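User: Predict the complex.
Assistant: Input components as received:
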Amino acid sequence: MHLVDGRPPDRRDAAAPRTQRTPRSPSRVAMLSMHTSPLEQPGTGDAGGMNVYIIELSRQLAALGTEVEVFTRAVSSKLPPTAEIAPGVTVRHIPAGPFEDIGRAELPAWLCAFTANVLRTEAGQDAGWFDLVHSHYWLSGQVGLSAARRWGVPLVHTSHTLAKVKNASLADGDRPEPELRLHGEQEVISGASRLIASTETERRHLVDLYGAPPDTVDVVAPGVDLDVFRPAGDGDERAARARLGFDPDTQLLLFVGRIQPLKAPDVLLAAAAELIRRDPERRSQLAVVVVGGPSGSGLERPDALVKLAAELGITDIVHFQPPVPHDQLASWYRAATAVVVPSHSESFGLVAVEAQACGTPVVAASVGGLRTAVDHGTSGVLIRGWEPADYATALERILTEERWRRHLAAGARARAAGFGWTATARGVLRSYQAAIAPSAVAV
Ligand code: UDP
């Protein structure tokens, strides 16, 4: 295997032996997702894009011949030890800490227990059970450092979010990421064999802010299930609105995601109020729908948006919808006149791509991965900053100029067509191959 002095290969070790000429894909990957299970409903608490990412990536990897076992913390004693969620994809529930949901801040205390039980699980299998570890988020990265070293295999790590980036763009009411995470994240980024970034911007952050060697960072865009997220068969958004119980002539502005200051759903509410201020007659036609549940620091003030809607005098047009099962979200995107993603920080922004795949234009903050997901002026509009009036102006044009909306809707479909999970899995496999044979494969 690729052991150097009993350790996994150091990606800075220029003398690493050239052992492999033909790219080899791993046959079985340990996918680590300690803090959130891929089986959880995304859009609330700690479950979001990462959960969707892990399921879709794992399914596609299995379809391409690489089996996946996902290790996640058992949040209930009633969970089965293993659950097969697709052919070749098994979720393993690992006991570590209380059998209940606990906040992310409490999880570092259970890292040792989780790591020990992951190692114990592997020890019960044939030797060489996994030939690669892929960790997600820094907590799992910490587990990955130990597991990869113990098993003598490479560690590939995906950060999903970066503390330094988050701390540089905090919203009002958000707490900075703690020193422990900054330190732990740095250790993982420095110790992994390879890193996967969703965009060139994230790659630059990994290199410039965390000192990752540029040639060890692979950019692989996440995807969207283009069979599920597609425009309505009849192409009729009016019918889509009627199916959800809205007047077909309603102009529907949609927010989808975990409700917390970082995601800035307040900007959409304030923009809607501004639209009504500019044209009071619009009120009877306008609906704002917020799909998702509280998360992060949003958990401390779960009724903050309800209060804001009342303060803005728009309670009558704002609808709060609890998290919707992932494959049913397409109905909401199709019914929307525009989807608004005003996040303060977003490493990619799956919601933006899913909405576009359904033929719905996106108005988004010009930050992070949203700059990749949305093609400004073609599939949506990117806005610098969080001034509600700017969002209102962009939305006003979409609401009032049908030709502009149709232009963006066509561009949105075209933009999303470039993001599929199979392409993501192929990109990730190339990264795995490079990690297994660092000197033989160029990604
Ligand atoms: N999501 C969902 N149901 C909901 C709300 C969100 O399935 O009610 C999914 C959504 O489809 C998307 C993910 O949660 O795939 C959110 O990912 P995104 O990258 O937009 O944000 P993140 O949660 O990673 O910050």
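The mean pLDDT is 91.
Let me know if you want any component modeled separately.
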